[in-house]
Amino acid sequence: MEAINQSLFLLIGASAQPDRGVVALAILFGEYAIWLVPVTLVFGWLRGSDTLRHWLIEASASALLALLAAQIIGVLWPHPRPFAIGLGHALIVHSADSSFPSDHLTFLWAVAFSFLMHPEARRAGWVLALLGLPMAWARIYLGVHFPFDIAGAASVSVFSAWLSALGGRWFAAPVVRAAMLAYRPLFAPLIRRGWVTR
């Protein structure tokens, strides 16, 4: 399996003299596109309904659970990154911690798959889930992940989204109610102007 993993990495990863435009695109998706996740969560909270806020809390819990699971997996099974074993070409600076699973993809897909479970959030879920494809390519191309790291992220994210959906009925509503006690007074001027929803 490791031979397949490394062969796929060498097939996708950057060459010794990569095209600058392709590198810039990879950095955009591999380093900065992840910020669309918190932007989506904040925008959804400010402009969405209470039902959507319920799904946002659930998606946030899914992300936290998935990242916790990824850290535990990394400690229990420390898998070196490609550059740590002299494989391929690392185009960005990254710590030499465990590569499996990808934290970027785990975070993104944990939120995306959670959204996909609910009709009101499904469109955002599809956008984020599909964003994971160029992000996965970029993380491999930039030399910081193996293809199996991406598959691991998908598996962890699906499981965390499923667990969060099971538990969401108990924890999401109380969290939303508590958050709204602070949100409505703090954002009262913006709510009155209709810039954010009540």
From TrEMBL:
Pfam families: PAP2. It comes from the Bacteria. It is an enzyme of class 3 (hydrolase). GO terms for molecular function: undecaprenyl-diphosphatase activity. SUPFAM superfamilies: Acid phosphatase/Vanadium-dependent haloperoxidase (SSF48317). Residues 56-165 form the Phosphatidic acid phosphatase type 2/haloperoxidase domain. The chain crosses the membrane at residues 26-46, 55-78, 98-117, 124-144, 150-172. Its EC number is 3.6.1.27. Coiled coil: none annotated. Keywords: Hydrolase, Membrane, Transmembrane, Transmembrane helix. This is Undecaprenyl-diphosphatase.
